[in-house]
Write a structure and sequence with these properties.
A hairpin with a 4-residue loop joins β17 and β18. Strands 1-5-4-2-3-6 form a six-stranded mixed β-sheet, with helices on both faces. A five-stranded mixed β-sheet has the order 8-7-9-10-11, with helices on both faces. Strands 16-20-19-18-17 form a five-stranded antiparallel β-sheet, covered by helices on one side. Helices cover 38% and strands 21% of the residues. It is α/β, with parallel strands linked by helices and 478 residues long. It is globular and about 65 Å long. It folds into three domains: 136 residues, Alpha-D-Glucose-1,6-Bisphosphate, Chain A, domain 3, CATH 3.40.120.10; 231 residues, 3-Layer(aba) Sandwich (Alpha-D-Glucose-1,6-Bisphosphate, Chain A, domain 3), CATH 3.40.120.10; 85 residues, TATA-Binding Protein (2-Layer Sandwich). The chain starts with 15 loop residues before the first strand and ends with a helix. It binds magnesium ion. The site of magnesium ion has 6 residues, from loops.
Length: 478
Amino acid sequence: MKQDKSRKRLFGTNGVRGIFGKDLTIELTIDLIYSLSTYFKYGPIIVGCDGRKSNEILSNVVTSTLNSGGLDVIYAGKVPTPCLQFAIKNKKCNGGIMITASHNPPEYNGIKPCSKEGVEISREDELIVEEIFYSKKFAKIDGTNKTYKDDSVIREYIDKVQSLIDVDKIKSRAFKVVLDLGNGVQSLVAPYLLKNLGCEVITVYSDIDGNFPGRGPEPTVENLNTLSKMVKDNNADFGVAYDGDGDRSIFCDEKGVIHPGDRTAALLVKYLLNTKHKNAEIICPINTTMNVSLVAQELNSKVIETKVGSVEVSREMLKRNAIIGLEENGGFMYGKINQVRDGTMTTALILEMLANSNSFDNDFDSNLKNNQTTNTEEFRTFSELIGSLRKIYQFKTKFQCKSKEIADKIITECIKHGNPMKIDTLDGAKIWIDEETWVMVRPSGTEPLVRMYAESTSETLLDSKVREYTRIIENMIK
Ligand code: MG
């Protein structure tokens, strides 16, 4: 379906989001849910929500509108997004709707529709839903279908996660873990899984609170000081922080150092490719760190790049039936459970990796041979494992533009500039300066701004290239 450029897009990068009562009004929600009922055709549809204040109201609106749209509903209540997405498949539903604005500020909320595969609907299907929304050609509005409450979703999800990891091995290590739950819905799942895995669990910001008074709903390298301190003070093995709806996870090593999402992801990729998923393909957006492709190369695996956005990664994974996918912001996807970002599953894999840290790493094995030692009881810590990755310097920023047209022109200008090694235009422009240095510029899909990402194994080259391209962009914004 072609996009009608004259009208406003409903869907952003991750579902339909906006300020509750202002952009995301009850009226818009009703029309959107009638559109989704028409699109889904039949139920049951499973509905869940995060811990936002407006969800008392929105969950009623969503479930009732689906019912009058002629679809039965299973209502899961408050659950992390990945938990609901797993339940879609597990309970053989025809689709799911998660009511969440993920890491956005408290006044926001959103509607995230997922297909029967347990993954966000495709970009193509978003346009179909928008077409129905604007034409108001709803299949049914006088249904009297029913909503059934179901409180087995979390239990079944935890069982599934446990079936995919080496529970006994993890238990034998009795890890101590600090969980920064960020007042989000991961409070309902992660602590219980970790207790089942024999961990000593220390929680921070564990009350579900739609105002996110702790450290806000988005975990970043900058705002996790409390987590870092708690890990050090308690001599924990590691710490982890989740976003509001629990699909993203950011990790902290035993020394209290917070690591960017894609660095931790590169480490997990290394673990999985070395152990249970040899040669598996890695699906990730084109702005992902080189660390991932370096690890993949070393272990004879292939990286498949997508446009930026978790939906693009999920859909590509589905198409290829891939096991490993990731996004730079702490979204790690393990296809054995589902092709979506999943904070709990990621934590479980980190635990398994640490439980195997005496044996899985090639470099470590060869060191052992060199040292003529047979001691394999030497477990390595999180910081030691992550320290084995190559040091890569990164830069990220964004530039506000007056219009989307200017943002597009900036990309064209950057493409014309200089004499780069190669340029990849899958999404914006990824400009390769040399084999180990790149600068990427891309217009935001939703706002008039240009994002810049850059990486290099050389700090000085990175600085000079960032300055060079920044100059071009700032000249054009003026
Ligand atoms: Mg999220």
